[in-house]
Amino acid sequence: MSEKQLQQVTGGCLCGAVQFEINGAVSSFHLCYCNRCRHNTGSAHAANIFAKPEALRWLKGEEKIQRFELPQAKSFAKQFCRECGAPVPYINRSGAFLVIPAGSIDTPFDFASDDRIFVAEQAKWTECIATLPTFDSYPDQF
């Protein structure tokens, strides 16, 4: 399998105040079902891509970024736009990894996640996802 790369991949927050570019190799891509990631995203799991810190270049709005580090956690942190609250990439506490929320990337990329982690903490309501009906937009009742 070839090395995963993100080259000239751009992304940003929901309101567009913060924008970034990623250029570099990807070390891993995890779907994390831990309790912290579920609370952080408000969803079933976080989808985080890991790369080297030097892969990140802020294009716009770096001054609008807020960082939060969970005091009781060894390494949990997050960064988000102060305007809209959307997550943006951050460098972990040790400085060893860049963590990129996959949903913040606008440029299409062609690799899938490596794995699902912390599945013992997966919410029961997510177990049926693969069997649910799918729609290209809102279902008719909207």
TrEMBL record:
Keywords: Lyase, Metal-binding, Zinc. InterPro entries: CENP-V/GFA (IPR006913), Mss4-like_sf (IPR011057). SUPFAM superfamilies: Mss4-like. PROSITE patterns: CENP_V_GFA. Residues 9-110 form the CENP-V/GFA domain. Belongs to the Gfa family. This is GFA family protein. The lineage of its organism: Bacteria, Pseudomonadati, Pseudomonadota, Gammaproteobacteria, Alteromonadales.
